[in-house]
Amino acid sequence: MRTALTLLAILAAGPTASSALAEGKPLPPPASDAVPPVELRIGLTDGKATCEPAELKLPADTNVELQLVSTADQYVTLTMEGQFEKGHVLHADGDVGHVASEKGYTIKPNGKATIKVRTLPPGEVPFACTSTGNQSSPFVGKAVLTKPTG
After folding, report:
1. Which of 12, 71, 80, 99 is the most buried (most CB within 10 A)?
2. Global pTM?
3. Per-residue pLDDT of the chain (150 residues; tens, 9 = 90+)
4. What is the spatial distance between Cα 149 and Cα 59, in angstroms, rounded to a whole number?
């Protein structure tokens, strides 16, 4: 009985403790109050992952809703240098899971997902889509982050 109560106490405290650790240092307010949706289409061509658009235009320092739509019949991992780390992910939902390295997200075959992020500061950042069936040949695109207007 005592062991069961201890286990219950640990389980009850677990989500609170892990939430506090995950939060870390809060992000500054976004550069814009708008939360634009941006669709990224994921597919396969000759067994290699593809992502469209290849040049992903995003407002910098802004909350953005990435809408992932996959027509690939394999798992595909999306990575973008620094974007999915250090508190920049605000919410993820759908057919997607955070990879163990915390550097990306893997979307299920023919899956749909939404990842709400705070985008990085202005600049250009490479992003990649890599299929589990062809990890040696990732698709590499470019995210262009510009200061939001208005």
Report:
1. 80
2. 0.77
3. 333 333 333 333 333 333 333 446 777 777 666 677 899 999 999 989 999 999 999 999 999 999 999 999 999 999 999 999 878 999 999 999 988 778 999 999 999 999 999 999 999 999 999 999 999 999 999 999 999 875
4. 9
**Contacts by 89-95, CB closer than 8 A, 24 or more apart:** 89/115, 89/116, 89/117, 90/63, 90/116, 90/117, 90/118, 91/115, 91/116, 92/116, 94/68, 95/70
Tokens of residue 117, six digits? 């992020």
**Where are the domains positioned within the chain?**
37-146
Would you say 41 and 51 are in contact if contact means Cβ atoms under 8 Å apart? yes
CA 76, 41, 72: angle at the middle one, nearest 5? Answer: 40
Give 15-35 as a 3 state SS string: HHHHHHHHHCCCCCCCCCCCC
* Preceding omega of 59 cis (within 30 degrees of 0): no
